[in-house]
Write a structure and sequence with these properties.
There is one protein chain. By secondary structure, the protein is mainly alpha-helical. It has a domain of about 35 residues. It is built from 3 helices and no strands. The termini are far apart.
């Protein structure tokens, strides 16, 4: 599997811009960032339950 060429990335970004519009792009970026953060948190095993359990001394 190869990485997309620069012109292919530009084409993909243009299609996304046309589909969602410029006004919704920051909202989509924020949602994507939060999703990535939550995914990394889940991979590291740091959940609120585990943190609470560690504070209790367990």
């Amino acid at each position: 599997m190869h990485f997309p060429l620069p012109w292919q990335l530009i084409l993909i970004l243009l299609v996304i811009l046309v589909i969602f519009g410029a006004s919704r792009l920051p909202e989509l970026g924020k949602g994507l960032g939060e999703g990535i953060r939550n995914f990394k948190k889940a991979l590291s095993g740091e959940t609120e339950e585990r943190k609470a359990h560690q504070k209790e001394g367990g």
